[in-house]
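Re: that backbone. Tokens:
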């Protein structure tokens, strides 16, 4: 156990463990599911904070997570090194890493691992970094003793519910089709009412309104991850290189459409 902790602490600050048994009934149906090791026993959850401080967001026109280098790349960089080191000391075991594109419901796995509480907005909130974090994990067939925590919820002030521009958080069951983050990432034409919301918020990709309203985020600490600090580019234009950014997977048509929407050209 100490050897595992030593490796993790070399590469990351916040991590936790939960048993795969707690998660296996709740896996997200996706292609990556087939990569889960047979006889998986433990999920190692790792957090990647990305908050840059309010001053960095003065001319921001995309959501904060998209203002830095694509987190899939950054998280994978760390997770692959950790998985490699673990394999060196446990060569007979498998260590498969995932970030976002994952069959693991990451918020739940992280909450079960004790690295944060689940917010009313569905997001994981960490004590030190608030909800401005990405989640990645390593699934292994190595048994790592862990105490499966009860999932804790935020204190339920409903500030996020009030702040949500579409009102989707008011619903009993979260409908992604009514979440502005999802709407901004869809191809095709955006309905007028949502275009107007994006314009009013000045946000051409994703949505941060529920997180900005969250009191747990008031004293969130800034990230120390150089990969995020050095790559910060909060103002996106039609000339911005999209490779390596969170919006690249959708292709340039979608981000350009959104930039025009936000800048009044529609
Ligand atoms: C699809 C997706 C979206 C969709 C839909 C989100 C949704 N809430 O359904 C859209 C595009 C809208 C979206 C938006 C955003 N997303 Co998103 N998204 C995902 C993704 C890829 C899958 C989530 C999902 O579909 N889960 C399945 C649903 C059904 O999960 P669920 O509601 O939690 O239900 C499961 C649990 O309830 C579980 N369960 C039920 N009971 C129990 C009991 C136990 C014991 C256990 C263990 C489990 C369990 O079973 C259910 C089925 O799997 C995750 C990554 C991942 N792999 O988890 C990122 C992820 C949740 N998103 C992330 C981010 C950053 C965002 C945005 C903030 C981006 C932005 N700024 O615009 C917004 C926030 C919007 C919001 N308030 O939710 C981060 C969240 C980080 C954090 N702090 O929590 C994640 C974790 C990605 C990452 N790797 O960091 N997202």
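Recovered sequence:
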């Amino acid at each position: 156990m100490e050897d595992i902790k030593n490796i993790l602490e070399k590469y990351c600050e916040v991590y936790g463990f939960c048993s795969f048994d707690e998660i296996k009934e709740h896996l997200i149906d996706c292609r990556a599911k087939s990569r889960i090791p047979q006889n998986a026993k433990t999920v190692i959850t790792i957090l990647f904070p990305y908050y840059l401080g309010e001053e960095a967001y003065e001319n921001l026109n995309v959501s904060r997570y998209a203002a830095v280098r694509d987190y899939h790349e950054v998280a994978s960089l760390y997770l692959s090194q950790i998985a490699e080191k673990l394999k060196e000391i446990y060569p007979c075991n498998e260590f498969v890493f995932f970030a976002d594109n994952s069959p693991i419901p990451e918020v739940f796995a992280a909450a079960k691992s004790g690295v944060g509480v689940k917010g009313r907005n569905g997001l994981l909130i960490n004590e030190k970094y608030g909800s401005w974090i990405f989640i990645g994990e390593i699934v292994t067939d190595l048994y790592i003793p862990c105490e499966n925590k009860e999932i804790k919820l935020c204190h339920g002030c409903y500030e996020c519910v009030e702040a949500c521009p579409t009102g989707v958080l008011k619903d009993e069951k979260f409908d992604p089709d009514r979440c502005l983050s999802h709407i901004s990432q869809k191809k095709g034409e955006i309905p007028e009412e949502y275009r107007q919301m994006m314009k009013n918020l000045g946000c051409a990709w994703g949505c941060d309104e529920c997180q900005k309203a969250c009191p747990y985020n008031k004293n969130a600490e800034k990230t120390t991850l150089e990969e995020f600090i050095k790559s910060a580019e909060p103002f996106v234009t039609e000339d911005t290189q999209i490779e390596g950014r969170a919006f690249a997977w959708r292709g340039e048509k979608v981000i350009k459409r959104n930039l025009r929407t936000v800048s009044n050209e529609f």
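Residues 159-262 form one domain. The chain has two domains: 2-54+63-140, 159-262.
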